[in-house]
Amino acid sequence: MTDDAVPDLRASDADREQVAGILRDALAEGRLDMEEFEERLDATYKARTYGELAPITRDLPAAGVTAPSVSLTKEPAAGPEWSGRITGGEGSSTWAVAVMSGFQRKGRWTMPRRFTCLAFWGGGEIDLREANFADREVEINAFAIMGGVDVIVPPGVEVVVRGIGIMGGFDHREEGVPGEPGAPRVIVTGFALWGGVGVQRKLTRAEKLRIREERRQEKLERRAGRRELDGGH
């Protein structure tokens, strides 16, 4: 007997019950609504051959077969720069205090998952432009009392500000700027009393020099092009 003859074979009651079981499972899992279930179940019990049964469950997983998992959340893929800067582990420093003085965290350091700082009659600077990150989401918990804290982030980083200010405030100007794929998210929270927490987005000195050099080269190329045109007349 050839395979072409299989669809014409008569189906048994057991075959129809097997298909009905698949339909009941699909209804319970939400793959079919009640109307679809009733239509297919009716067609199942009316089927006389394998050829009539096969289409009823063609788009449904058979019993014992696990359907491929589907992710409904699209995680951004980290670019080559950010993937190397999100290192995991612990941060280089987790807190800082400035009382009638100042503090700085800048250069090559690792921003922890949570950094807490206090500026009382003083000031602090948290510069993340050249920093690595212990996680893709980090939090700066800043308390500025008659003082100030400045947070500097590089381009591409998403900023969320959740701090509370009384006769003081938190800078929200950098909120709403979408982050680059895979870039960290920096959450700035805390409390400001007669003080402030500022957020700035700046290029590193090396990036500024690179852009300046690129612009200088473009000017030189344009001048050279004009000279060639002038010489051609």
Shape: elongated
Quantity of strands, as a count: 13
Q: Main β-sheet: number of strands, strand sense, barrel status?
A: 6 strands, parallel
Percent strand? 25-35%
Mean pLDDT: 85
Structural class: alpha/beta
Give the terminus-to-terminus CA distance.
88 Å
Sketch the topology as an H/E string, one letter per element. Answer: HHHHEEEEEEEEEEEEEH
In DSSP terms, counting alpha (H) and pi (I) runs of 4 or more, how many helices?
A: 5
Q: In which range does the helix fraction lie?
A: 25-40%
Walkthrough of the structure:
The model is unreliable at 1-6 and 64-75 (pLDDT under 50). 28% of the residues lie in helices and 27% in strands. With 233 residues, the chain is α/β, with parallel strands linked by helices. The strands form 3 sheets. Strands 1, 4, 7, 9, 10 and 12 form a 6-stranded parallel sheet that branches. A 5-stranded parallel sheet has the order 2-5-8-13-11, with no helix packed on it. Strands 3-6 form a two-stranded parallel ribbon.
